[in-house]
Amino acid sequence: QAYIEKEDSKKLKQKQRERMQPKMGKMDIDYQVLHDAFFKYQTKPKLTSHGDLYYEGKEFEVKLREMKPGMLSRELKEALGMPEGAPPPWLINMQRYGPPPSYPSLKIPGLNAPIPLGATFGYRPGEWGKPPVDEHGRPLYGDVFGILQLDEPNYDEEPVDRSKHWGDL
């Protein structure tokens, strides 16, 4: 404010002279604070990898490497007001409309995977809805009841022919 008042009180000739021959060192800065800011407390910025395209706001994006679809963090459960062991609020809609098409192999408890032990199916608070079944009572999207045990082949016990190289005709 004081600087602006001082500039306003100058005449045009003084302003022009100041522009042509400026006086250096007019700013009152604590050089120790300035030194600490640049040398003591400075941190390296997060750089992009070679070949990455930079765009405005890239440094503020959320890193999603540690997040996986279908896994709810403690903070998200707290924000949604979900008690421990309760289903997510969107489970009923997923049971009605099906699993998300973007993640066809995603296992969602109550839809295509068994619900946790001690949980029950139903529509009261804390219950896991009704899983979608066909006219014969079989689940539509997967083993939601936990009764279908798929026999996965055990490749460790099969003999391996090491007499030929891979890819030989």
Structure described in brief:
With 169 residues, the protein is mainly alpha-helical. It has a domain at 81-147. 24% of the residues lie in helices and 0% in strands.
How far apart lie the N and C ends? 86 Å
Q: In percent, how helical is the residue content?
A: 10-25%
What order do the SSEs take from the amino end to the carboxyl end, as H and E? HHHHH
Rg (C-alpha, Å): 33 Å
- Shape assignment: elongated
Mean pLDDT: 83
Report the major sheet. none
Would you mind describing this structure in some detail?
The protein is built from five helices and no strands. The mean pLDDT is 83. It has a domain of 67 residues. It is 24% helix and 0% strand. The chain is an all-alpha fold and 169 residues long.
How is this fold's topology laid out?
Elements: H1 2-9, H2 12-20, H3 31-40, H4 74-80, H5 91-97
What descriptors fit this protein?
5 helices, 169 residues, single chain, mainly alpha
